[in-house]
């Protein structure tokens, strides 16, 4: 069985955290801290609940002075910085819990703690509480020499960052966010550019027209920017938005046919669905984005459609054969229900063929 992320907060990590805390703050009570962490409810806590539990418990064992505690935590973080990237987000969480009233100290701390980790969750409460001041800070971070800090400028203000509190104001009006992304769109770091793309994709879910306007403005300048835009428009592309598809050269396929679409009538839960088909044309196939969708049966009898990309490129031949599979093995992120499902073949946003199969 795969290890759960929450179990990264284990005895090894907590013991090391206690040891380093006592080294940099001799009054720190290691045994009491460890006992307080592994209380009767610890096993039931999920990942972010454990993170919050550890950071708040640290707060009861460190000095009552916030600035003094931050200096201690900086020293501890520096000794644990490379081996425990995800676990170390307790340091940023400490800032979120205890530092909302001390902006300057907190911003310096988040900048320090984001290196080889990430302050993307903690900065959001500051944005919500002090938006103007926080976005000025994000602008400063976007000009940093360090790629981790520049990434924080983008990742921290994503309107819909997964696992994080949403930023409702930016979901309605992303203008301030776009100013940050404008500064980072051609960043030398792929790590930063990926964050910019994810931010654009977030914005597209609430403001698709804005992202299409941005794409028209930014596209066809250089390869890195085009790749960023493609990733940033992935939700619009998957939704077969015609205008977005045409921006990337995927025009309506007028001369294409699907032949020999083969799909089993029935498969068993836990097995693979294998299907194949041929794409034919009287002319060159040209630029194609080929996808398939599955209408997954829900518990209530309705269906939920998910789209998956197969291939994308420019093809000089007038035919292409494709084989694909999809695994129906049990996973934690999706529940499969026995019953009728559908597979559709989509080319440049147009559905060409659909077949049904029964998941038994």
Please give a structural write-up.
This protein is of the alpha+beta class and 360 residues long. It has helices spanning 11-24, 30-37, 47-61, 66-79, 89-98, 103-113, 122-129, 131-142, 147-155, 168-172, 175-184, 190-206, 208-218, 223-232, 234-238, 242-247, and strands spanning 256-262, 266-267, 272-281, 286-297, 303-315, 319-327, 339-347, 350-359. It has a five-stranded mixed β-sheet with strand order 2-8-7-4-5, with no helix packed on it. Strands 1-3-6 form a three-stranded antiparallel β-sheet, with no helix packed on it. A hairpin with a 5-residue loop joins strand 4 and strand 5. Helix 4 (66-79) runs parallel beside helix 6. The two termini are 25 Å apart. The model has no long low-confidence stretch (mean pLDDT 93).
